[in-house]
Design goal:
Length: 881
């Protein structure tokens, strides 16, 4: 049997039954996603395996592991198949069609009234207005015939009003009536893109909408408010007062400003609505966003602080555990008790309870216990990124970092306790005893020439050094293990994450308690709040120094595509091997580090290989009401045409189509670089996402036509110059190869002069061909451009990317006849404000016998041109013609 530390549990079922049980349980949940089996079919198998387990434990204990593993695997599959799904809110979904309706319901949550800037569509003009976000539990809706019918579901409602208008005073629990045009949450049907609709359904929200504030009528004020409502009101009141306190405080390093208050609000109350995108981006780029918001680390620090106080007061272990759980629960409720906080709270609770049962010697068993209970309650949490990252963090600490510490410096850190209690020495290992004796001698010799006060600092300095070493070890292990989820979910490897976390985490231990005290004094006794605010501001500004310093370091922030299944399997094997080997002989510490490093390298560098089938691929990416096309030559050269964008968005919008949709789609397919990108014209729905694409994929070339100056367009040109991207201007008549495909520019004309502001006829129109097959990619070109292209001739194409989202200003009969496409693609948003595509255009395409693909209905659509024929595929299902 390998020699292990007294506190390090060996990886055996008899020592860690719940760890092995949860692994098998999780495998069952995963298998249920691959193969559907009715839950009733699992019941006989579960009873049979349970009987075999009982028999084998009694008759043949050595072979009992196999039936136990199968039993938990079946239990995991059964729980996954029988777990209730989120309410699809079907009736509400049918009514969320953009039609204005009057609904009634109870306000469940609401934000504070804020001032925001919004942009008028296709304009640089901004307006400032008041806004408030409400979540309403609907009870009824008025129909077209005037009748009122019951309706259940959740509505996320945005209220808006001019700055000089009175905003209704609404509180949680009020019964309200509002006239609103409800619609479904945005959903981009592209591979790898986050599904907001599914997420909101999990939060009980089935529809979203916006209304003017005067469209709301308060039918009845809240009478018997629930505890959650009262806690939410307290949270909102605290956030508002903290921000008001900061706004009335002079700026300075030791003073809190408004931006500081927004960060503290997110950190203490869980309210992220005040965070600007700039603040979020800085923390995201340094891999430290979890430090900014209420997370498992915050709750763990808070619970650890409470547990430390209770233990310092010599309260019995059981009482201190339950007191910590109770106070942590109260804090979790105060923060809104969202899913991340719920998960963190239950992980901490179950871990503390597990420690009561198994003590410190089985930390992995306590982790297994916590994870098993959470998965039984919610099997789908296994696929939640937050759950995985929380579990991996504690697994990295307890599974690898603690055993390494116990085999190296941890005994010396423990030896610093009661340093002058000599009777302890004989009970310790010889090396540890020698360390204590040497340290005492060092203190005595130093006292002779430096005095007792200086000498007394020596044990403290040694302790600080060992604590820093401990923090460094834990941080390195976590960074290595988190390489896969960072690559898989965020497509980001932050080399700066380690130094930033090393500098911030110790400060967070002081900042969080100080910030809590500041918040309490701002609410209870604002006159003295400046005292704790002084320390809070100092710690926060110190923490921001490394974040701001590393945030825009290009070397420290690498964007990478989705890892392959081989990479995921290799990473899992490396982590499992590290957890096993570190419990063997002491020399295995190096092997464990090597294994973790290999796993990180595999996760980062073994990427999903981009697919190209020896054909010209044209993929119309779903970016809502905008344009984005990906062209891939038969040998794999890539061209992205436009990058979508958000029309009429706030300048501080938390959504970036280029980052959150286009880049995610490209990364999911395995791309980390583009050969070229093209801008058809400078409208926001075509170039709004381009800055993020340039930064993330560093293309070699940027193709442009003739565009007038505009702030957004000029920003792209500046970014291209900063990144060393070669800008090529094209006009009608240009022809050139792109790999093995031919590119012909059809518009703008050589003598074209753009107007003062960007317009649709600025569009760069390309015809790409491979063999005898071709595609005409029209941008937003309208009738004047189309007539010039018809006059130029030779524009027949098998595939037409329809101009201007199917508007009646494009796709003239003469142009459609000249192109004579077999297939047509329309990039268009669902229920968009412009009524695209127009019925007139759809009828013309139907009369031309062109199979038409719309992104609002089918999502991302792909067309393969092999030189002779064209075949099609959509993201969720494929079809060939």
């Amino acid at each position: 049997m390998p020699q292990t530390s007294p506190h390090t549990e060996p990886l055996r079922f008899s020592h860690l039954p719940l760890l092995f049980a949860v692994i098998c349980f999780a495998c069952g949940i995963y298998l249920s996603r691959l193969i559907w089996i009715a839950p009733a079919f699992f019941i006989p198998g579960i009873f049979l395996c349970a009987a075999i387990c009982g028999l084998s434990i009694y008759k043949a204990p050595r072979i009992s592991l196999l039936p136990l593993a199968v039993l938990f695997l079946l239990l995991g599959a059964f729980c996954a198949e029988s777990a209730p799904m989120a309410d699809p809110q079907t009736q509400l979904t049918l009514l969320a069609d953009g039609t204005s309706r009057t609904v009634e319901g109870e306000v469940g949550r609401l934000s504070a009234v804020r001032h925001v800037e919004s942009t008028v569509p296709f304009s640089n003009k901004t307006r400032t207005e008041q806004t408030q976000q409400l979540q309403i539990r609907l009870t009824s809706v008025s129909m077209d015939d005037g009748s009122r019918i019951p309706l259940t579901g959740g509505l996320s409602l945005g209220l808006y009003a001019p700055l000089d208008a009175a905003f209704p005073f609404i509180i949680c629990g009020d019964i309200v009536r509002v006239t609103v045009a409800m619609r479904l949450p945005d959903r981009y049907l592209d591979p790898g893109v986050w599904d907001e609709r599914t997420y909101l359904l999990g939060q009980g929200i089935g529809a979203i909408g916006s209304s003017k504030s005067d469209a709301v009528t308060i039918l009845r004020k809240a009478q018997h408010r629930s505890i959650l409502c009262r806690l939410h009101s307290l949270q909102q009141k605290a956030s508002t007062r903290l921000i008001a306190f900061a706004e009335n405080t002079p700026s300075g390093f030791f003073r809190l400003d408004r931006e500081d208050a927004t960060m503290l609000t997110a950190m203490l109350t869980g309210d992220r609505s005040y965070l600007s995108r700039g603040v979020r981006t800085g923390f995201e780029r340094t891999g430290s966003f979890h430090l900014l918001v209420v997370s498992g680390m915050h709750l763990a620090i808070f619970a650890g602080f409470i547990f430390f106080i209770t233990r310092a007061l010599q309260i019995p272990r059981g009482v201190s555990t339950f007191a910590t759980i109770a106070i942590a629960f109260a804090y979790a409720l105060f923060t809104g008790y969202g899913q991340p906080v719920q998960r963190s709270f239950w992980m901490i609770t179950l871990f503390l309870l597990g420690r009561l049962l198994w003590r410190e010697r089985s930390a992995l068993n306590a982790i297994g216990f916590a994870a098993l209970v959470l998965l039984v309650v919610n099997p789908q949490a296994l696929f939640d990124a937050g759950f995985q990252m929380t579990l991996l963090t504690v697994l990295a600490t307890a599974g690898v970092a603690i055993p390494i510490a116990e085999k190296s410096f941890a005994p010396y850190l423990a030896a610093l306790r009661n340093l002058w209690l000599l009777p302890l020495d004989p009970a310790l290992p010889p090396k540890v005893t020698q360390f204590r004796i040497s340290l005492r001698l060092m203190v005595e010799h130093t006292r002779l020439f430096a005095g007792r006060y200086i000498a007394a600092l020596i044990p403290f300095v040694v302790k600080i050094f060992l604590r820093v070493l401990e923090l460094l070890l834990v941080s390195i292990i976590i960074e290595l293990i988190m390489s896969l989820p960072m690559a898989l979910y965020f497509h980001r490897i932050t080399a700066s994450g380690l130094p930033v976390n090393l500098l911030i985490v110790p400060l967070l231990g002081i900042l969080l308690p100080s910030a809590i005290v500041t918040l309490l004094t701002v609410v209870i006794a604002p006159a003295v709040a400046f005292v704790p605010a002084f320390l809070t501001a100092s710690m926060l500004h110190l923490a921001l120094i490394p974040v701001q310093g590393f945030a825009y370091s290009t070397a420290g922030d690498l964007r990478i595509p989705t890892p392959s299944w081989i990479a995921i399997a290799g990473w899992m094997i490396s982590i499992a091997f590290a957890i096993w080997i570190v419990r063997q002989k002491k020399v295995a510490i190096a092997a464990a580090f090597m294994s973790l490093a290999i796993g990180a390298v595999i996760a980062i560098h073994v990427r999903k290989t981009p697919e190209h089938h020896g054909q010209l691929e044209i993929t119309v990416i779903d970016v809502g009401q905008g344009d984005c096309l990906l062209a891939i030559s038969p040998e794999g050269k890539t061209l992205l045409i436009d990058a979508g964008g958000i029309v009429g968005a706030s300048p501080d919008s938390k959504v970036d189509i280029g980052e959150d949709v286009v880049s995610q789609t490209l990364w999911s397919r395995g791309f980390n670089k583009l050969d070229a990108v093209a801008i058809t014209h400078a409208h926001a729905d075509h170039i709004g996402g381009m800055p993020a694409v340039l930064e993330n994929f560093h293309p070699n070339e940027l193709w442009i036509g003739r565009n007038p100056d505009s702030p957004a367009y000029n920003r792209i040109l500046r970014e291209a110059a900063a990144l060393g991207i070669h800008v090529r201007q094209h006009r009608a008549g240009d022809t050139f190869p792109f790999g093995s495909i031919g590119v012909r520019v059809l518009s703008p004309a050589a003598d074209y002069t753009p107007k003062f502001a960007p317009s649709n006829d600025d569009s760069l129109v390309l015809r790409v061909s491979y063999g005898s097959t071709s595609a005409l990619l029209e941008g937003d070109a309208e009738a004047p451009s189309e007539s010039r292209m018809v006059a130029e001739g030779n524009i027949h194409s098998d595939l037409l990317k329809v101009g201007h989202h199917g508007s009646k200003t494009s796709t003239t009969p003469a142009f459609l006849q000249a192109v004579s496409p077999s297939y047509a693609a329309i990039s268009v948003g669902r229920h968009n404000y412009y009524g695209h595509p127009k019925l007139e255009t759809l009828e013309k395409l139907e009369n031309a016998h062109a199979f038409t693909y719309r992104t609002d209905l089918l999502g991302a659509s792909t067309f393969y041109l092999d030189g002779k024929h064209i075949t099609t595929a959509t993201w969720d299902k494929s079809e060939s013609r």
